[in-house]
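Worked example (supplementary).
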Amino acid sequence: MNLVVQTLVDGLVLGGIYALAAVGFSLIFGVLHVINLSHGILVLIGAYLALVCSQAVGVDPLLTMPIVMAVLFVAGYAYQRLLIQRAVDRSPFGSMLLTFGVALMLQNIMIWVFSPDMKNITPSYAFASFRIAGVTFDAVRVSALAASLVLLSCLALLLKFSPLGRVIRATAQQTLAAQLCGVNVRHVYALTFAVSAAFAGAAGIVIGIILPFSPADESLWTLNAFVVVVLGGVGSPAGALLGGLLLGVVNTLTAQYVGPSFPNVTMFLLLVLLLLVRPNGLLGNAFSASR
Amino acid sequence: MNTSSARLPLLILGGALLLALGPLVLPPFYVRVGQLMLYSAGLGVAWAILGGFAGYGSFGHAAFIGVGAFTAGLVENQFPTLAPALLLLLGLAAGAGACAVISALVAYPILRLRGTFFAIAMLGVCHVCAEVNNNVDFFQGSMGINFAPIAPASMDPAVFFYWLYLAASTIVLLIAWAIWRSRFGAGLLSIREDEDTARMLGVPTERYKRQAFVISAVLTGLLGVIYAHALGYITTDSVYRDDTNLSLIVFSLLGGMGTLFGPVIGAFLLVFVTQVILGRLLDFHLFATGLLLVLLVLMAPGGVIGLVRGWRLRRRSEMVPAE
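After joint prediction of all chains, the assembly is encoded as:
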């Protein structure tokens, strides 16, 4: 019984982090209709930046978050304006291949700079843990989950109540109508991308605290983001959260009860099953963008 | 259009005969590069039957290379005493059969998705096949499978496989040409242009898509079987490769998406660039491939064929000045 609860708790913690890592991907997909295959790289850039910053200054990795998010915000804005905007309205392959090309280049640069080895960020409380009712909670994982939930709530509030959020939602619903109302669509696209990149970077820090990472991991995080978005639904933090939690629980349950090498199999079987039963994702409308 | 397209098979066969002379004059290194070019061209054309004609670009076709190769290996090892030629035929039949069954099963759910969703879902299919293959002992994915040598003793295996790839890729290209000019091919093109309208006008889009998917998968599987024999020993990692998944898209994009010869041109060009020009710069490889992709999307979205067509159009409009 304890094992089941422990597995579920671990899954939920992992799922919160999956959700944070996927929310930017979901936003870009919902607003720009671009599959950003360089998303995983943005996550890893966040992790490496946090590693460098926290080693240089000697502060807690979570405290480097404002710097990392600011850097990625600016980089994301420039990346969208200079490269992706040129491919947005071409064939669906265009933007996908462009972002894949960028991902390959950045991965190669990361290998040159940081070596292909596994790295991890160890905060001071790395080995602390506490028990509630027989279930173990690592301090690291709990703080990672808390950071994820806070950030996701912030993004949800930003989208719901701020003027920027309103403009982003308007562009996602009806690009032409938004344009007619005086929205500068290119600017909004770039801002959306910048916000997504910043959240990817934040996710990178949280991931860096609890898991080891290497430049080759980028495809894993891109793929996870895609699965989370398909499970949950496109374009909303709530959908990403639901999809992420589901993925996390399924992953840990499979690893615990079926075998440690099978999470990908169950993940994609679940995906196909869901596509058959509920092709719109659990929340929202995942496939309007693909038609 | 019709007369010139009816002459195409002669052109294809002529080109194949010319290429068949390659190993007689080329140094051994270039015979190997030629092998890779022909293999890639065949895969590219097989991919394009679904990805180029019908517009369903798959990001996971390496799944069928792997399924074909492993099925062939497992079946062939049950008959160690067969003659080499029969062994190859048996392997080809088994590989093609397995690919046909799996692709027909996968087609139902997967083809409900469109565009990028389809592409990434196929990547998922590829990863699932690879993991099952690697983790279930029966498939021997992590241990690897040996293939009996099938090249005649009197012949250099490199040359033998060059000709085998050439024959296979020529057949794939001829099949693609036959589809291209048939009613079926026109149906696939209409799906690419506007699937909903095509369906409204009475094109059996679901059936056409499934057929194209299965044909594409089977041809890919056949090439995979030959590839496995050329390697002689395969593991999961050597056939289910993500760089193959990517290259298949790039071949079409580089040559010209949705054209018959686009993937061939693209495969020849890309293999030449990566093997001959970048062959000595391994640290630089990912970066160069990425840069090539980015430049390609930004500068030549229609590929080589697109560039040539644009250039021809411009020249024609210069020759006939508007009055």
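Two points are worth noting when inspecting this output. Chain A has a mean pLDDT of 82. The first helix of chain A runs from residue 2 to 32.
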